[in-house]
Amino acid sequence: MAVVVAEPTLEEARPIFRLGVDTYHQMISTGLFDEDDRLELIDGELRAMTPINPDHAGKNKRLNRLLNQRVGDKALVAVQDPLTLAPHSEPEPDLMLLRPRDDYYEGANPTPADTLLVIEICDSSLRYDREVKVPLYAAQGVPEVWLVDLQHRRLELYREASADGYRLMLRPAPGEVVAPVLLPDVRLRVDELW
């Protein structure tokens, strides 16, 4: 009987070099990327971010204003800032609510331990955000993620992070009031998002 040896897959034959967060920061500090380059580090790979259209930009401004009005001194609102998910990822969520710090994170980017809520605004990126970024956030221990689905005018809340993903996903109705789990006094009516 002949023994058949399977040929290695392309990835096995030519492994992919994955960047770490530290290497990525070194590349940024040397000026390798222009500030207009819309990139984020996801699982060691540099990923192009989708261009921001007016609907997305407007929703980001609306949420930024609503959140700043509601959180007061309870949290810092970060807009399209990096979130370090060591060792191989540094996404740039549309919005984050962060634990307040005296240095406003000037010394280092926030990590999951600093994060109260991540919000991603999705239009053409919905599938990518849901299938790639949400599981990444869960595996790294980000306590809660909201996806603002522009195509379907729907909000998805992901809670109870675990290594296998979020254990709870909610889709509140337009008239419902929602609040981040870690900031229960920061209440928003879902239809305020639209």
Automatic annotation (TrEMBL):
Residues 22-190 form the Putative restriction endonuclease domain. InterPro entries: Nuclease_put_TT1808, Restrct_endonuc-II-like, Uma2. It comes from the Bacteria. PANTHER family: SLR1083 PROTEIN (PTHR35400:SF1). This is Putative restriction endonuclease domain-containing protein. It comes from Thiorhodovibrio winogradskyi.
